[in-house]
Design a protein that fits this description.
Blueprint: H1 3-8, E1 11-21, E2 24-29, E3 32-38, E4 41-42, H2 51-62, E5 66-74, E6 80-86, E7 89-90, H3 91-97, E8 102-103, H4 110-125, H5 141-164, H6 187-195, H7 212-215
């Protein structure tokens, strides 16, 4: 029997001994630990808005409890991807229906796609969990991860540039919640928010110069 078939027939039963975030946890089976990534959902990253609340919700539901995991596959990080059940509760579905995670559209198919998208729509319409946040903070975790990688790369480039130009204090800026030119204290800060933080609203005409009254564009 192939490894894939073995995994598809694998059911793990054990106690949850650690929760990493709203969709990943550590399961202890006997003396062996397994890192479990819940299938078909994507919870906010720890540093995203509502990330801590999502983790707390999952912890309250499964930490220290006996759960069953129906494994679907093993990913490239060595995590076991599957459905988690605590008693009669399907935890994957619970997290989406109550607004603690998104439906992971890229991996959903068939009947489960309808179930999870209906759950997400229910949470959205009733403003449950993360859906209480302002719309601009409701960023899908997958998109947030892409943005974070881009921003980390740009920030590294920007810092290197700042070292070469020691007459600027821009290296002290940090990405925050500012989105308008009226909130910028200088042209340098506006450039930082555009180029490093990716706030495109500062460059309405798309010419690469933010806040033209500040930067003289």
């Amino acid at each position: 029997m192939s490894i894939l078939l073995l995994l598809l027939s694998l059911t793990l039963q054990g106690r949850v001994v650690g929760v990493y975030d709203g969709d990943t946890y550590t399961l202890l089976v006997g003396h062996r630990q397994y890192k479990i990534r819940m299938a078909d959902i994507d919870a906010p990253e720890k540093h995203q808005p509502f990330g801590k609340r999502s983790k707390q919700a999952l912890s309250g539901l499964i930490f220290g409890k006996d759960v069953k995991v129906v494994v679907k596959k093993k990913d490239r990080y060595g995590r076991y991807i599957g459905e988690t059940y605590v008693g009669d509760v399907w935890v994957n579905k619970y997290m989406v229906c109550n607004g603690y995670a998104w439906a992971y559209r890229r991996f959903l198919k068939g009947e489960k796609k309808r179930i999870f998208l209906d759950c997400e729509e229910h949470a959205r319409e009733n403003k449950l969990g993360l859906w209480k946040l302002p719309p601009e903070q409701c960023i899908e975790p997958e998109e947030y991860r892409r943005m974070h990688k881009r921003h980390t790369y740009k920030k590294r480039e920007y810092r290197n540039h700042s070292r070469e130009n020691s007459n600027t204090s821009s290296a002290s800026f940090k990405c925050g919640t500012k989105t308008k030119c009226s909130q910028m204290t200088s042209c340098e800060e506006a450039k930082f928010y555009l180029n490093v933080c990716g706030v495109k609203s500062l460059d309405r005409d798309g010419d690469g110069v933010p806040c033209e009254r500040l930067c003289g564009g």
